[in-house]
Amino acid sequence: MSRRRPPNQLRPTRIERYTTAAAGGVRITQGNTQVLCTASIAKDVPPWLTDRHTGEATCGWITAEYAMLPGSTPDRKRRGTDSRSTEIQRLIGRTLRAGVDLEKMPGLMITCDCDVLIADGGTRTAAITGAYVALAQAIAHARNQKLIKKNPIKGPIAAISVGIIDGQPQLDLDYALDVRAEVDMNIAMNHKGDYVEIQGTAEAATFTHKQLDQMLALATRGIRKLMPLQRAVLRQG
Q1: What does the pLDDT read at residue 3?
Q2: Mean pLDDT of the region 162-190
Q3: Fewer CB in 10 Å around end: N or C, the chain?
Q4: Mean pLDDT of all residues belonging to the chain
């Protein structure tokens, strides 16, 4: 058995620009987990965002799709959306929308596609962290194309998993830790340190208020280390 990481340490993490036909694209790697995140722009929005009298869009929209590719797991993953994928892509979409002022991008919809290349735990949180960068790239492209007048970005959004393993809180669970977790939690935050999403489940045991505070503190520490990686990629232009 490999030596366990210190409980407050992230897995080795990289976010790299990825050349794609979409307006934004990155590959995020956390440990062995790899997720390709792209962001595509369309000049339309869902019908409910259109003024029924003028026919004009009142704001923009951000949505997401998530998929685990067939070769992402040892046993081939079948193509197609299942209930888990649907739940995760809804999570990604609403989390990303928390980082953007949709009224500043009227008439535009940006779709963030998150395709898991290799799954070794933490795919949904890696997808959120990477998708934000692809989204920011797409918004910069839209501004360059004069599709958006004002920058709608409020600030970075990033996410990380935490859990309790053998009674001890642990940051950034890989698959080997995740399957042993007594408690599994996914946390997304903005640049102010405010929580955007908290998903927590007592898998094999309940958890105390103190343990919850410990997990939140670990997540905050981890996310504060992820955001500089996001900014570094965006500074590349």
Answers
A1: 52
A2: 94
A3: N
A4: 93
Q: What is the pLDDT of residue 222?
A: 97
Instruction: Walk me through the domains of the chain, giving residue ranges and CATH numbers.
Output: 13-235 (3.30.230.70)
CB-based contact 36:25 (threshold 8 Å): yes
- Cβ contacts of 84-93, under 8 Å, gap ≥ 24: 88/123, 88/124, 88/127, 89/63, 89/64, 89/65, 89/114, 90/64, 91/124, 91/128, 91/186, 91/197, 91/199, 92/64, 92/66, 92/124, 92/127, 92/128, 92/131, 93/62, 93/63, 93/64
* Phi-psi domain of 155 (left: phi exceeds 0; alpha: psi -120 through 50; beta: other): left
CB 30 within 8 A of CB 126: yes
Distance separating alpha carbons of residues 18 and 219, to the nearest angstrom: 27
Q: What whole-number percentage of the chain has pLDDT above 90?
A: 81
Cα torsion through 218, 224, 229, 232, rounded to 10: 180
Residue whose C-alpha is closest to residue 165's, from 3, 2, 4: 4
pLDDT in the model for residue 119: 95
Residues of the chain above pLDDT 70, percent: 98
Measured distance CA(201)–CA(139) in Å, rounded: 34
Say what the pLDDT of residue 133 is: 98
